[in-house]
Design a protein that fits this description.
Blueprint lengths: L7 E7 L2 H6 L8 H9 L3 E7 L4 H8 L4 E4 L4 E2 L2 E2 L1 H12 L3 E3 L2 H7 L3 H5 L9 E4 L2 H12 L5 E5 L8 E6 L11 E6 L7 E4 H8 L9 E5 L8 E7 L2 E8 L22 E4 L7 H19 L10 E11 L2 E10 L10 H22 L1
Parallel strand pairs: 1-2, 1-3, 3-6
Antiparallel strand pairs: 4-5, 7-12, 8-9, 8-12, 9-10, 10-11, 13-14, 13-16, 14-15, 16-17
């Protein structure tokens, strides 16, 4: 049973003042995690966040031993600049914070796809730092007739992710060339517009030093995306979804008849047909990633996920292409991950509490 010496853990998630005032362990989507922490004799508490009352949250977090944070890169029209600055100050006070903003910048933006393009999960990937660069480079790549996928560096839920393809392949592409463009945000439909008009849509993604990633489109997309949920360096569950957000409508059908994403199905880490992917991720790719980014295991996020699409088959069967890594707000997640998350954060919170007591 929890006591005054039990570790105190804040669950940080977005909301308004009313949400913060009425927050309990049971009136939010993290209720199972609250109860898992209580079962481990911890003292979890909600910490509802909004930039308008960031100072209140800051003062609350200074009193806890650990903070688990679920806030999207863009949340209700706000980016994470205020939150991340505050979390850095909290972490400097020897409160365990996951995911720490510095780790997010290392592995939780779309730029990771460019950084790891040489790894076995990589593909034809380019980093585009300005609209002028994109105008030149995209014109050259679209001239070959193949589809490309463009992704803003920080986003979620398909925001700022586009599939683009020239209507007439094999010809020079200019600003007036018509292209097919489809946004990955749910409910979007394919548009036919000039390259110049499309580039104007992309201007906001480069604001404030933003960038975009340009990747080859994966033709096996309709076979689904496999989401590997990890607690530090161990897979704690899987998600599997038919990702049709960028898939075209049947030939001759109107754009609005393109298939929409199917439901995401969740599985425990021992799901038999995902064990090859799990082994490669845990034994090969992740150690290489940690070395590349200089991230020790204990600094990896308490909860994160790596999303994979199916690449071309080779002599050994399926290959896998990294689609993105999520660390800012990974939810929902499989039930199998809840006790593993709880055990990991209690360990960190207990250690932080001991350090603060001895200091």
């Amino acid at each position: 049973m929890a006591s005054d010496t039990s570790p105190r853990i804040a669950i940080v998630y977005p909301g308004d003042r009313d949400t913060r005032r009425t927050a309990t362990a049971d009136n939010n989507r993290f209720s199972p995690l609250f109860h898992a922490l209580v079962a481990l004799n911890a003292r979890p508490e909600p910490a509802v966040y909004h930039p308008d009352f960031a100072d209140d949250v800051y003062q609350q977090l200074l009193q806890v031993d650990a903070a688990l944070v679920w806030v999207n890169p863009i949340q209700d029209g706000h980016d994470r600049s205020v939150l991340d600055a505050m979390l850095r100050r909290v972490a400097d006070s020897d409160v365990f914070v996951s995911t720490h903003p510095d780790i997010i910048m290392k592995m939780g933006t779309k730029e990771i796809l460019f950084t790891t393009r040489h790894m076995a999960w990589g593909t034809d990937t380019h980093l585009v730092r300005s609209l002028a660069e994109m105008r030149q480079q995209l014109s050259e790549r679209l001239a070959g007739g193949e589809a490309r996928v463009l992704k803003q560096n920080r986003g979620h839920s398909g925001l700022g992710v586009w599939k683009v393809q020239a209507i007439t392949g094999g010809e020079p592409v200019t600003g007036a060339t018509l292209i097919r463009a489809r946004h990955a945000e749910r409910g979007s439909v394919e548009q036919i517009l000039s390259l110049d008009d499309f580039l104007r849509l992309c201007e906001p993604y480069f604001a404030g030093g933003g960038s975009m990633i340009d990747q080859a489109y994966q033709n096996r997309l309709p076979e689904g995306m496999i989401r590997c949920y990890l607690v530090h360096d161990q897979v704690a569950g899987f998600g599997h979804q038919a990702v049709n957000a960028l898939y075209p409508a049947p030939e001759g059908a109107p754009p609005e008849e393109a298939p929409q994403p199917g439901p995401r199905l969740y599985y425990p880490p021992d799901r038999p047909d995902f064990q090859t992917l799990r082994h490669r991720l845990e034994q090969d790719w992740l150690p290489e990633l940690q070395t590349l980014l200089d991230i020790p295991t204990e600094a990896l996020p308490v909860l994160w996920d790596a999303d994979f699409l199916l690449g071309p088959k080779d002599a050994d069967g399926d290959t896998y292409v990294l689609c993105e890594i999520n660390v800012s707000s990974v939810a929902p997640y499989p039930d199998s991950a809840t006790p593993v998350i709880a055990e990991a954060v209690v360990k960190h919170a207990t250690a932080a509490r001991a350090r603060r007591s001895s200091g």
